[in-house]
Design brief:
- With 484 residues, this protein is mainly alpha-helical.
- The protein has 19 helices and 12 strands.
- The chain has a 3-stranded parallel sheet with strand order 1-2-3. Strands 4-5-8 form a 3-stranded antiparallel sheet. The chain has a two-stranded antiparallel ribbon with strand order 6-7.
- Helix 3 (89-101) packs across helix 5 (185-195) and helix 11 (328-342) crosses helix 12 (354-364).
- The termini are far apart.
- The structure holds glutamic acid and zinc ion (ZN).
- Glutamic acid binds next to strand 9.
- Glutamic acid binds at residues 18-20, 52, 189, 203-204, 207.
């Protein structure tokens, strides 16, 4: 093997993200995308997108679109691709022919059961090389296996983990083409990485066990073709685990799909910041940074190899901070964009009104995701306006003084000279005093009657925006309903 661990210094940096179209982008894939992209940008290299769809029955364009949209959302633009493995079959067949002609692969007609029966109880699991000397012809019903020399070791130079050594005797003669002739993933990846001149393979840890096979194939193809391309440097990125230290997965109930976070109203810059921390820390230990900082400071050598805890509560916390740091006009724009994208039930147009603008600063302080916004402004925009049953029971039906408080509030509000939060408050303070209550206690029935719920934005600012006519009408409606 000729390659050095980090690759030669003058080598052009070309990295790739090679997602399988599984229907959504996993947050781990998004993290990998960020690292690959940042590495490419830092070195003025290329970030290549390759869809590994060899195992999908038919091409799933919708899934591919989802991947592209997710990558755009987190800001990882690519320079080449998307290539599709399903469109590159002849390249894999060519490689199989080359390896066959060079005597590096052989045909095998063993069934799985036969292999199992022969190897049961073997110290080293896996295929036993049964067909290696049989000189079977290639053909339907016969898989192709790579003949692994049993001597020596294969070393994977990993920029994150250091040298990882695999004894060749533990590597079975692995299958490179199925009995129907289809090339296997392990071969396709090597062929693609060679042809695409990939300099660094930066991917998830779960691919580390197959990497020695890739190294062997790389070397065999180099020898057989005479095109001894330098092996890429490898960097295997840590797994993402949940609070039980299990690999996060949709099946376990972890929220792993990037688009779910987008739909919930996470900001891409918060996502980028948080995801970047899953395996890496800036040299100064900063917890908050931009993708520009990532591009400047990211180092593969600084990536941690132990599993990274994907803490969605911490992510939520990050998102809240990012939301509060937005200029209010920008917050407002993001909400509008989000509402349009997710077909928010209030209708995206309501966020383009003076009423929303007046409330936006109050909402911004209170939400950690954009999807929490509608619940704060439903009182203003939901058609028809409805009073929450439980809040009504608690704050009005079960409060003996609620009706008189509502009457007095309605009267005071009807007579107000100007309609400002301060005056609205003064009126209710007077009502509270007459009833010997704290202001908060007197607010409760008014809040439920006008805003529909017992929690939400500050009452008087909200009523100022709601306006006199609507406020008085709502109080009156609830009063009449309770009295009747
Ligand atoms: N298709 C693989 C995945 O989605 C990536 C393989 C690779 O990066 O070499 O995990
Ligand atoms: Zn066999």
């Amino acid at each position: 093997m000729s390659a050095s661990a980090a690759g030669s210094p003058q080598r052009r940096v070309r990295v790739r993200l090679a997602p399988s179209p599984t229907g959504y982008i996993h947050v781990g894939t998004a993290r990998n995308a960020l690292y690959n992209w940042a590495f490419a940008r830092q070195h003025g290299g290329d970030f290549i997108l390759r869809i590994e769809d060899t195992d999908t029955e038919r091409s799933e364009e919708e899934w591919v679109e989802g991947i592209l949209a997710g990558l755009r959302w987190i800001g990882t633009d690519w320079d080449e691709g998307p290539y599709r493995q399903s469109e590159r079959r002849e390249h894999y067949e060519g490689a199989l022919d080359t390896l066959w002609d060079a005597g590096r692969i052989y045909a095998c007609d063993c069934t799985r059961d036969e292999v199992l029966a022969r190897t049961k109880g073997n110290a080293i699991p896996g295929y036993d090389g049964h067909c290696r000397g049989r000189e079977l012809e290639r053909g339907p019903g016969r898989a192709l296996r790579f003949a692994v020399s049993q001597e020596g070791t294969t070393v994977v130079h990993d920029l994150v983990r250091g040298d990882v050594e695999f004894s060749n005797s533990t590597i079975e003669d692995f299958v490179v083409a199925k009995s129907n002739g289809d090339a296997l993933f392990v071969l396709a990846v090597v062929v693609d990485d060679r042809e695409m001149r990939i300099s660094h393979v930066i991917r998830s840890e779960e691919h580390l066990p197959t990497t020695p096979k890739a190294v062997l194939l790389w070397e065999a193809l180099g020898t057989a073709t005479g095109d001894r391309l330098e092996l890429p440097a490898f960097a295997h990125l840590p797994l993402l685990v949940n609070d039980k230290r299990q690999k996060i997965s949709k099946r376990r109930g972890d929220r792993v799909a990037l688009e779910d976070y987008e739909a919930l109203g996470y900001l891409p810059e918060a996502m980028d910041n948080y995801l970047s921390l899953l395996g890496w820390t800036p040299p100064g230990g900063e917890e908050f940074f931009t993708v520009a900082d990532l591009v400047r400071d990211f180092r593969l050598e600084a990536v941690n190899h132990s599993p990274a805890f994907f803490d969605d509560r911490r992510l939520l916390h990050y998102n809240g901070i990012y939301i509060r740091n937005l200029a209010t006009s920008e917050f407002s724009r993001r909400v509008q964009e989000w509402a349009a994208r997710t077909a928010d039930h209030l209708g995206a147009d309501c966020y383009d009104t003076p009423a929303w603008e007046a409330l936006a600063p109050l909402v911004q302080e209170r939400v950690a995701t954009l999807s929490e916004v509608p619940s704060y402004v439903e009182f203003l925009f939901a058609k028809p306006f409805a009073v929450d049953k439980e809040s009504y029971e608690k704050a009005i039906a079960r409060d003996e003084e609620a009706l008189s408080i509502l009457s007095e509030a309605r009267e005071g509000y009807g007579a107000l000279g100007s309609w400002t939060a301060a005056e609205l408050k003064a009126v209710l303070e007077a009502v509270a005093e007459r009833h010997g209550r704290k202001l908060g206690k007197a607010q409760a029935p008014v809040r439920v009657a006008t805003l529909g719920r017992s929690v939400g934005l500050p009452l008087f600012e909200s009523l100022e925006v709601l306006g006199r006519e609507e406020t008085v009408a709502r109080i009156e409606a609830v009063r009449a309903r309770s009295a009747g």
